[in-house]
Structure of Aspartate aminotransferase family protein:
Amino acid sequence: MNLRGTPPSSTRILDANAWRPGQDAESELIARRVRVLGPSYRLFYRQPLEIVRGHGTRLWDAEGREYLDVYNNVASVGHTHPHVVEAIARQAAVLTTHTRYLDRGIVAYAERLLALLPDPIDRAVFTCSGSEANDLAVRVARAATGQRGVIVTEEAYHGNTALVTGMSPSLGVGVGPEVVTVPAPDPMAAPHRSFAAGVRAGIERLAAQGLRPAALLLDSILSSDGVHPALDLAEAVAAVRAAGGVVIADEVQPGFGRTGSAMWGFARHDVVPEIVTLGKPMGNGMPIAAVLAQAAVLEPFSAGEPYFNTFGGTQVSIAAADAVLDVLEREGLQAHAAAVGRELRALLDELAVVHRSIADVRGDGLFIGLQLREDDGSPGTALAADVINLLRQRGVLTSVCGAHGDTLKLRPPLPFSRADAARLADELDGVLGDLEA
Amino acid sequence: MNLRGTPPSSTRILDANAWRPGQDAESELIARRVRVLGPSYRLFYRQPLEIVRGHGTRLWDAEGREYLDVYNNVASVGHTHPHVVEAIARQAAVLTTHTRYLDRGIVAYAERLLALLPDPIDRAVFTCSGSEANDLAVRVARAATGQRGVIVTEEAYHGNTALVTGMSPSLGVGVGPEVVTVPAPDPMAAPHRSFAAGVRAGIERLAAQGLRPAALLLDSILSSDGVHPALDLAEAVAAVRAAGGVVIADEVQPGFGRTGSAMWGFARHDVVPEIVTLGKPMGNGMPIAAVLAQAAVLEPFSAGEPYFNTFGGTQVSIAAADAVLDVLEREGLQAHAAAVGRELRALLDELAVVHRSIADVRGDGLFIGLQLREDDGSPGTALAADVINLLRQRGVLTSVCGAHGDTLKLRPPLPFSRADAARLADELDGVLGDLEA
């Protein structure tokens, strides 16, 4: 892949919410950090936060100030959940090695995890990150189909390896070879747009390059495209399959019960993908991710080349991931996400009645996009940046997404309570009131 | 990269030591494992081991049998080292999040780590795996040089992403585009071969394709090529630099004091690479890795595209990595590796006098290659496979490497004691005696 020479066209997904050297809020720690970390590192907020402790839906900074976390989906069952912490500590003291020795833990976890997936999906491959999972999944899809093209959405983010960077146009550097983009829904500018029609057009654009699709690689809640729960996905999938391709459901964002209505994002659309990739929330902070598929789908790749991942599915990571499933079940977090998410959306819908800058509220469970607009109806890009920084001043942490960075990404740890939802709505009410005044 | 259609030409690095379905030693656990893990998964040994506990240089199986570990370099400061375990448990209970908040731990660790590197190298980027580190390093080198070619050794292994799989010919599926291979030393067939001459020829082969080298990507102990401590590397590096390329020192194998004579493999050759990648031993089992370079080397890549790694340098991983440096220092493990490695080599040299099947003993510190030959002088491939399986029966765990799989890879956790070395030599003496009888 050659991305050189393509200047960054946007600063969307990674930079919209970033402190940059030269901005205010310099500190001795920031200065030290800039001197030793690579120039790609960014910090959130105009006044960066030094977070020193977390618990449940709360984070604390170095001065002891408490923040409500409405952003972090990695700590999905809550920051430092004692059951997960205990599992990590217990396993770290016993054994951490690789998967070329037999281990009951990884087998039992794979069985438990696969039981949560639709029937055809019967094998797991563990990696360290969602990036590694998607990098592998694309190769599996290409080997399985004998085709090369990959279809992603215009603001997709699927990871940081060379291969999947080229499938992450939200990074602002275009896409790699053999990749085409299709538009996400746009409730403001194109409320009747069909996603499936875009995918069919993408298949035609691939054909014009002499390519057929290996895969539609899709986060079915379209997180970086601005959170779009409604999608004519079944029709899009049918078009991809008719052209000989498969579906890779990137569940790094919607997976593990976050959307409330289903354990997995694809299940919200009654679609059974050939390949599923998992990541961020899987180990509540431990670096574990996975590719799940039918054995027959994995076979052509496995027959063609060896694959081994040293830290993938190491015992400590598996112990954490298993404990995450315990907590999800015991605390009923999927049903909780559905119930609290519904209440939160009702509160936000009420705010939309009184605040003209709220253009749209959408989502499912505890994954909500709140889109903002300027008074002239244009995307509320600057407004959204102000809102997240003012919310941060008020002790509420979130970020933005979408093509214009105009959509608040409300994506808290799943134990988010009704009181947390009310606090978020109150603070947002206050911030929008100040900004609209 | 299109590796499809190229049949596996070897089963070297991943398969030489692998149990395969259909072999004996079936068990209920193996059957369950085969039913849920992807078909790429392999198991070590003709009789796979179920390892349930580790401590120091010892592993224990499900029946309570103890094994001397002469293979695992991930648990570099010893399995379940209490100082590392305690650091993981303590930090997991406090906070695990990402690097877009300020954090004193990652800054202090980066400062401490960079102080162990030669002066020009002044920035760190943390990833989850050596694969991710090498994948990033190659892109950094290409952006910094404006050149595309990559030179690797004929049996190199640099990771499992799409990009670096194409730079890992030991996988047996050839190399990707813009990659050329150069031969490692061959003490048996070509004892006077110059590595630098091979690199110069590689630069010429790139030129014939219209390419100039971005990087020589090199594990300077040449682990998967069979462990070759002696190399005219400075001369090779001069040739790469004269052609406008840089050196990426892949320290996943030799780094963190293993070779005894230096903290880093490149330092054994008085070479200062532009880019250093770290992996396996860095966190003693926690998934942490890094790319280290001068800011000016990282800058062109960082200016061209955003890079963020969610789990890279997460607090628990940093806590483990910092504890690893504590242990390396407090226990003087580099000096220990040098001293015990010297004694072990002396013991193995003694064995070479009495066992005609030992062709060569070479290495540095606690990274030793013991090359075997058949009676007719041909590579001891089948012999090496027998040796590691018989050693396993005697409670000693190791594996093989090299183009012919004829070299025992002796690479224990660093606290390997003089008694451990004597036990290894004794068991090897016994196994070779049985096989030569």
